[in-house]
User: Fold this.
Amino acid sequence: MLIDTAEITVHGGHGGAGMPKKHKGPDGGNGGNGGDVYIKGSSNIKLLNQFIQKDIYFAGDGGMGARNNKTGKQGKDIEILLPVGTSIYDKKTGEFILDVNKIGERVIICNGGRGGWGGLTAEQGVRGEEKKLILSLRLIAYFGLIGLPNVGKSSLLNEITNAKPKIANYPFTTLEPNLGVFEGKCLADIPGLIEGASKGRGLGITFLKHIEKVKVILHCISCETQNTLKDYKTVRKELSEFKLELTKKPEVVILTKTDLVDSSYIMKLTKELNKVNKKVIPVSIHNYQSLEELKKVLRNI
Assistant:
């Protein structure tokens, strides 16, 4: 199951108390600052699932100041991994806070409290921030491989990104999106759609919601099909009936499994598909040159 929204509470660590100065004794040190809470971007789109088990996070508290002006120990920072494409909102106000846009990007989401001053007027440390957050996965990938079941999407993802998805010759091998990275851009293998998906057949509604969360559609059609235009229109019909905006996303048609047919038949299928989409790329995972041509197209988008 892919969770695409979650709510969590994060606490910055409390600042440690300052050490009071004893009469005619050594000066007391300042308290240590509380730890901060960081968000870090990851390519793992299933990371929101972690919040089913745990939804409250605490950074470490700062230590108390010590004699001889020794500052207390700094509180330990914590880091929460989130999928790239996650939007973060303040639950109390509904205010947008930030988007997680890059793999490895690290941002403070909740500050720890300052440690208290030591000395004659020693202070208690400042409490760390507390925030209740809503996390929404708005984008699972830049590119989304879509199509009917068994058109070779998972194999193609494997060749382009080395994602190593599960592959077998029967429908619905892919039950959740598989994700890979191609030259810094995420690419998702969306589970195969079937006719009637927009009305809930199969796992259709779930799959169509995933397509909402990609920027560019890579529409895969197998050379094994008996009717390329019918296959193309079946998928496009399901997109439009679920949400018309899906049909307005940029789209490239990929004619897959070209190693199974001869070149004249590939040309025939390509011309048929050119009637509905000018960007048609014939590809075989066993043909290095065709894969390089596809990569060139992806680079230029």
Notes: The CA atoms of residues 223 and 265 lie 9 Å apart. The first helix runs from residue 153 to 161.
